[in-house]
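Extended Data, panel c. Modelled sequence:
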Amino acid sequence: MTSSFTRDDSGRLTVGGLVLEDIAAAHGTPLYVYSGDGIRADYRNFAAAVAPVNGKVHFALKANSALGVIALLAGEGAGADIVSGGELHRARAAGVPADMIVFSGVGKTAEEIGAALDAGIGQINAESAAEVEAISRVAAARDVVAPVALRVNVDVAPDTHAKISTGQRSTKFGVSTAQNEAASLYRRLAGDPHIRPAGLAVHIGSQILDLDPFARAYTALLDFGNALRGGGLPVPTLDLGGGIGVDYETGTATDFTAYGALVSRIFADSGFQLGFEPGRSIVANNGALLTRVIYLKDGDNKRFVIVDAAMNDLLRPTLYEAHHAVLPLGPAKTAEGPAAEGPADIVGPVCETGDYLAQDRMLPALAEGDGLAVMSAGAYGAVMASSYNSRPPAGEVMVLDGACHVLRRQRDIAELLAEETIPVLS
């Protein structure tokens, strides 16, 4: 259980002093609940850890793009790391200054590039020669100069899930620093009159718990940046990306101290401004998905707890085989209380065998209507939701300074149908 989510004297699960069962009763389930206090505290802890170096922190919106979350972090001084034109609009709507926005991603369209230049964002991370050319064309048509950093691939493989590993040359991300490819492209963009070279960027993956891959990638980036500078090229910024992992097993708060010390050791007195894009490490353990038991079903060798949340609400277990702790909203069981009944799969109503939130978990005796919290769901939860099976995805609320704020209510089926039209057929 995270420090944001605790049990009160009666054993009820709470966040920010509010009882989660009461929040579920007031707003319905399935429901995402975020600890605004926890998000703010974790951001401050990250910013303090990297304060010894000259850097800017941009929150990665792909982890959680709720306007309320973005605005909370913008109020703390965070910028935004975006990967789409839609996220650009979200960042601006939430009050992020344009010059504090970094645009990452391998497939920016001409329309998205144009919107970014019109907004005056601080940096576009280009990931291919074709993209550099596209940025130059769009900038020339607007008679502006685009701030472009080159995302490089330093061929560092982190120990993480294959689907969120981006540091190897076998992936679609970045330009290889081998065989002069990245150096040649950086010289080209530095000589383009419609581009202002903003530096270099790297991001080797997500949910990385071992600091060694960061150390190897950052050292390679620093060496490459110094080599370009030695050749007379301007390289003002080294963007270090994100990727710091969190403890999904216990949900304990992430300690950024060692990461900050690593960054300080490598980049102290380097003369580069640094960029950071934390996402998961700020929000994951500060969110939970609340759900209720619909039915209990006994299988041949296990029981199934069928709940009203499903893979359309939280895709991570199905997509990544991800682990999320599942806790009853009611009083915790003790040694004197009812023993765990045995292993159970927590599954949803979606018509897929892969529709599960957790498998083989030891849970106490449950009854229809009981509330459960799927923990560590603040990152890559609501942002990946869909309306599969015509199920409106879960709503979102945030508890901040002792009050519960609705960030996005759950839509109903009438609203989903209203987005579509039926053609007139002869």
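Residues 36-280 form a domain with the TIM Barrel fold (CATH 3.20.20.10). This feature is highlighted in the accompanying rendering.
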